[in-house]
Inverse folding.
């Protein structure tokens, strides 16, 4: 029968080995050669957009790359789906946007801010998501 | 209760109950909003409600874990806590930081990163608070007469949880990296180090409640936490499938996360078997309900419902849908909420000297809360499966069209949540009826 000592060795051994593999895989998948996000195209404007995304907690309602709240539409491919003008109009609107009953917060963004947000979405939209984009994007409908 | 300083745990548990109550209020706000009634939108928009709901959850669980540690460590180490005064300072500062964060969320003061919305300046206060807590626990343990595996696993869980908070404070320009390291906190907490905390509390309770030999229980504790890390660390990959990193995670994450339920299965078998084996039947039946219940419900919520969407072939359809919320509720409830309820139900009579071991109110609380939560899980599940089917498999409707279609399931959710909240209310009434902790309880209890 298994002894307590063996059980402890199993715990320690398993932890150390899987942890080291985990670190190795992290280093590998984040290395420049494995980049799938077109990091070189990440503009200053898109970075400002990300800041707006965070400081307003857009993720509290929307998902992006499948992460966030389940109350409002997935935004990974929003530029392709709606176009820039529509997105800016929502962000700059002085009253809550609600085309389908459900309200969005009226952020009353400036034109520059709205443009930064769009740049952020464009960058996100070009990330290689290992196939997820074909499921969340309505464009996938056409490709089916 | 054997040591006077254990009484400090009571106040951490009281804080837990208070924050839990508030958490449920914000849950209802979101439930109504999903059902089409968003009358509070101008004051509490959905993103505020969501951040408050999930952060209160984390804070009340942490407060419960801390209370558990303040109760368990002295008894295991056979020594008073090194400083009760500092423990109170830590309690009050925890409450203040938590409340400041929650208030801030109502005024657009946050960091929109799911589960880690606490803004940076408050993050530092959290770190200070946790350092103080770890200091008290570690020094007590170090000075103690005895170092048990139970205390060690519990402390290791708390310490690793503290360390893992740090990757969540890294700053990135890339959303991909941001998300990648956010999971080091969120996933490695709930599917890693928190399981050590749960295992430690479970082991303590089983030793007390069943009377099975400590050596036997602690041997299996090692096996369980061994399985946890063996699967859970690389299992982090199940959050890396579709966020813009290498495909290697589809294989690694798929295989290892599929093994994660083993740790929960082991926990359930362990609890049930120790109960069967036990000679001594402790009179505190309510504590036993919550203890065994936690081990079983966590297997269903985390193990089975987690497995249901963890393979990449399934996850591509369910990722970021209400299916995820279904699993999130039952997993958090079974594994962490119920184990906190278990240690409270066990320790409360010992701290207050009032032995409400088997009251009908206590039993009602257990059954109503569990039936309500399972009902909520079913409501989320039906809504989630419908969403996945209409929006992502047949692609016949857009996001918002589907949302209007599934509103009715949120009415069911609200009804089930009412049942659940009734159970919680009864539990809290029972908590209050126990009265406050007293040194006289030292003589009354000898367990
Ligand atoms: C009155 C009871 C409750 C109600 C009505 C409720 C309702 C909700 C709703 C509507 C959401 C938002 C889903 C979305 O983003 O659209 C949510 C999120 C969440 N709730 Fe609750 N909840 C309740 C209690 C609880 C309890 C007791 C727990 C934990 C044990 C919990 C844990 C969570 C978690 C972890 C999330 C985030 C899920 C995710 O984003 O994947 N909730 N809840
Ligand atoms: C007590 C343990 C667990 C808790 C508290 C828990 C809780 C959660 C929560 C709150 C989320 C939502 C995260 C987000 O998208 O922001 C989540 C996601 C997920 N969980 Fe768990 N979980 C647990 C265990 C497990 C286990 C054992 C498995 C696998 C067997 C699993 C599989 C998953 C998967 C695949 C997702 C991602 C869903 C998606 O892509 O949207 N979980 N979990
Ligand atoms: Fe996970």
């Amino acid at each position: 029968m298994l002894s307590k000592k063996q059980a402890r060795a199993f715990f320690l051994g398993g932890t150390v080995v899987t942890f080291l593999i985990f670190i190795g895989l992290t280093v590998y998948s984040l290395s420049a050669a494995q980049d799938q996000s077109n990091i070189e195209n990440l503009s200053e404007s898109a970075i400002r957009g990300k800041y707006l995304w965070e400081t307003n907690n857009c993720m509290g309602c929307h998902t992006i790359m499948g992460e966030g709240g389940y109350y409002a539409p997935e935004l990974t491919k929003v530029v392709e789906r709606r176009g820039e003008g529509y997105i800016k109009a929502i962000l700059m609107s002085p009253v809550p946007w609600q085309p389908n009953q459900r309200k969005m917060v009226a952020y009353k963004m400036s034109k520059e801010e709205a443009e930064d947000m769009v740049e952020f979405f464009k960058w996100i939209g070009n990330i290689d998501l290992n196939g997820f984009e074909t499921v969340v994007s309505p464009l996938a409908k056409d490709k089916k | 209760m054997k040591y006077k300083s254990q009484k400090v745990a009571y106040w951490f548990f009281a804080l837990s109950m208070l924050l839990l109550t508030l958490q449920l209020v914000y849950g209802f706000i979101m439930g109504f909003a999903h059902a089409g009634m968003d009358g509070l939108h101008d004051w509490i928009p959905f993103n505020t409600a969501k951040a408050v709901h999930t952060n209160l959850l984390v804070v009340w669980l942490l407060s419960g874990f801390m209370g558990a540690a303040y109760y368990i460590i002295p008894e295991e180490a056979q020594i008073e806590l090194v400083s009760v005064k500092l423990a109170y300072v830590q309690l009050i500062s925890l409450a203040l930081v938590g409340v400041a964060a929650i208030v801030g969320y109502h005024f657009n003061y946050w960091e929109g990163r799911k589960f880690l919305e606490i803004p940076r300046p408050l993050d530092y206060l959290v770190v200070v608070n946790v350092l103080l807590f770890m200091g008290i626990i570690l020094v007590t343990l170090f000075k103690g007469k005895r170092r048990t595996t139970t205390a060690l696993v519990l402390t290791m869980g708390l310490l690793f949880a503290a360390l893992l908070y740090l990757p969540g404070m890294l700053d990135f320009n890339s959303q991909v990296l941001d998300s990648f390291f956010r999971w080091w906190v969120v996933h490695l907490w709930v599917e890693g180090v928190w399981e050590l905390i749960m295992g430690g509390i479970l082991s303590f309770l089983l030793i007390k409640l069943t009377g099975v030999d400590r050596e036997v229980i602690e041997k299996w504790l090692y096996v369980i936490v061994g399985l946890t890390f063996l699967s859970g660390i690389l299992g982090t990959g199940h959050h890396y499938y579709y966020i813009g990193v290498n495909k290697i995670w589809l294989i690694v994450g798929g295989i290892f996360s599929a093994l994660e339920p083993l740790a929960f299965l082991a926990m359930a078998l362990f609890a049930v078997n120790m109960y069967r084996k036990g000679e001594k039947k402790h009179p505190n039946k309510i504590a036993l309900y919550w203890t065994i219940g936690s081990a079983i419900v966590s297997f269903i919520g985390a193990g089975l419902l987690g497995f249901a969407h963890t393979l990449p072939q399934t996850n591509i359809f369910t990722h970021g849908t209400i299916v995820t919320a279904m699993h999130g509720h039952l997993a958090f409830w079974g594994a962490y909420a119920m184990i906190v309820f278990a240690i409270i139900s066990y320790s409360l009579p010992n701290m207050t000297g009032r032995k409400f071991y088997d009251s009908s109110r206590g039993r009602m609380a257990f059954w109503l809360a569990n039936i309500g939560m399972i009902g909520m899980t079913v409501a989320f599940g039906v809504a989630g499966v419908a969403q996945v089917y209409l929006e992502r498999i047949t692609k016949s409707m857009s996001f918002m069209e589907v949302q209007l279609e599934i509103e009715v399931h949120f009415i069911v959710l609200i009804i089930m949540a009412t049942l659940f909240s009734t159970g919680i209310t009864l539990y809290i009434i029972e908590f209050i009826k126990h009265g406050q902790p007293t040194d006289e309880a030292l003589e009354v209890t000898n367990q």
Notes: Chain A has two domains: 1-29, 43-138.
